TrEMBL record:
Organism lineage string: Bacteria, Pseudomonadati, Pseudomonadota, Alphaproteobacteria, Acetobacterales
Keyword set includes Signal: yes
Pfam family, one: LolA
Domain of life where this protein originates: Bacteria
Organism the protein comes from: Gluconobacter wancherniae NBRC 103581
Protein name per UniProt: Outer-membrane lipoprotein carrier protein
Signal peptide: 1-17
Length: 197
């Protein structure tokens, strides 16, 4: 009896990771999203961000697999650089610097490279809309640490990242909407270096 219970617990633990519990069409969408994110040479856009206090900010967005940079223009200049397991936010007005680990941050789920949704990640939902698809992911071993939803336009089978929605362990919500998107344009990798480097 104890062995049977242990085996069931181990199997249930394995089932929470990845996306094998999804329907075949949903699994196909997850694989398409993985391939898109891993082969994207770079993405630049303008963004509008809604924060947990209903505040709104805007600026310029840059992404290459494994790295992200946000240059805030409003409400005041700030720079966010994330990758390699860390996030650094610099307030260019006050000079204040905030450093965070991405280990338990929803953004960390996007900034792993290569992106794999079957290793330590649980796909919690896949949804379709008119010419759109979104995939929600969480840490497989501790989903309460945060949820990240990746939003894509999906026109004639071609994906394009258009937004991010997230909620962290403290239930703080954020949303980033992208516009004026330019894919696979030349992106200088030096812009993703942390300010101290």
């Amino acid at each position: 009896m104890k062995r049977t219970l242990l085996a069931l617990l181990l199997l249930s633990g394995c089932a929470t990771s990845g996306y094998g519990n999804l329907s075949q069409p949903q699994q196909g969408d997850v694989r398409r999203v993985q391939a898109y994110l891993n082969t994207l040479k770079g993405l630049k856009a303008t963004f509008v961000q809604n924060g947990p206090d209903d505040g709104q900010s805007a600026g310029h967005f840059a992404y290459i697999p494994g790295h992200l940079r946000l240059d805030y223009v409003s409400p005041h200049p700030m720079q966010l650089v994330a990758g390699e397991g860390h996030l650094v936010l610099t307030d260019q007005g006050s000079g204040a610097v905030t450093q965070l680990s991405l280990k338990r941050n929803p953004l960390g789920l996007l900034l792993r490279y290569p992106v794999r949704f079957d290793e330590g990640v649980q796909v919690t939902d896949v949804r379709h809309g008119p010419d759109s698809v979104q995939v929600s992911v969480a840490q497989a071993d501790n989903p309460s640490q945060g949820l990240l939803t990746l939003q894509f336009s999906d026109i004639e089978g071609r994906l394009e990242l258009v937004g991010l929605q997230g909620v962290d362990a403290r239930q703080h919500h954020f949303g980033v909407s992208l516009s004026e998107i330019s894919e696979n344009s030349s992106t200088d990798p030096d812009i993703f270096k942390f300010p101290s480097e």
